[in-house]
């Protein structure tokens, strides 16, 4: 009997788990070789740039709660609330596109941020 392939939902949950564990090898395995990451600060940066400069920032998260996870075919949206070790909290929505069993594209859209409960700009 062969093992079933992970679903997009399972792949996303594994990626979000790497934010807390900081398991770079697991994160790398989930990202396609042609992976791109975009945000208000990053314009379609490649996989290596993302792993060196963006993904490690998730190590500052004290809490991350997925609020919505919607999958349609090879695309998904995730909205989550997070709190950092510096007392900042924020809500973001991320768009994902898959190629096979890997994430090929991630676009993040920032929501409002709060510092100790007060509206603030992200640091």
Report on the structure:
The protein is 24% helix and 50% strand. It has 123 residues and is α+β, with helices and mostly antiparallel strands. The longest helix has 14 residues, at 8-21. It has one domain (8-120): Nuclear Transport Factor 2, Chain: A, CATH 3.10.450.50. It has helices at 8-21, 24-30, 47-54; strands at 31-38, 45-46, 61-72, 75-84, 88-99, 102-115, 118-120.
Topology diagram in text:
Elements: H1 8-21, H2 24-30, E1 31-38, E2 45-46, H3 47-54, E3 61-72, E4 75-84, E5 88-99, E6 102-115, E7 118-120
Parallel strand pairs: 1-6
Antiparallel strand pairs: 1-2, 3-4, 4-5, 5-6, 6-7
Structural domain count: 1
CATH architecture: Roll
Low-confidence stretches: none
Give me the count of strands.
Answer: 7
Percent of residues in beta strands: over 45%
CATH T-level topology: Nuclear Transport Factor 2, Chain: A
Radius of gyration: 15 Å
> What's the order of the H and E elements?
HHEEHEEEEE
Shape label: globular
The CATH class is identified as Alpha Beta
Describe the main β-sheet briefly. 7 strands, mixed
How many helices?
Answer: 3
Give the mean pLDDT.
94
Task: Name the structural class.
Answer: alpha+beta
Helix content: 10-25%
Instruction: Determine the N-to-C terminus distance.
Output: 50 Å
Question: TL;DR?
Answer:
The protein is α+β, with helices and mostly antiparallel strands.
């Amino acid at each position: 009997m062969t093992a079933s392939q992970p679903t997009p939902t399972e792949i996303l949950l594994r990626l979000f788990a790497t934010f807390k564990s900081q398991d770079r090898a697991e994160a790398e395995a989930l990202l396609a070789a042609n992976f791109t990451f975009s945000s208000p600060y990053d314009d379609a940066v490649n996989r290596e740039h993302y792993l060196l400069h963006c993904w490690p920032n998730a190590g500052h998260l004290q809490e991350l709660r997925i609020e919505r996870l919607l999958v349609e075919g090879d695309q998904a949206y995730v909205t989550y609330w997070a709190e950092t070790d510096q007392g900042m909290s924020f809500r973001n929505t991320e768009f994902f596109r898959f190629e096979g069993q890997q994430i090929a594209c991630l676009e993040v859209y920032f929501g409002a941020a709060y510092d100790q409960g007060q509206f603030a700009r992200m640091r």
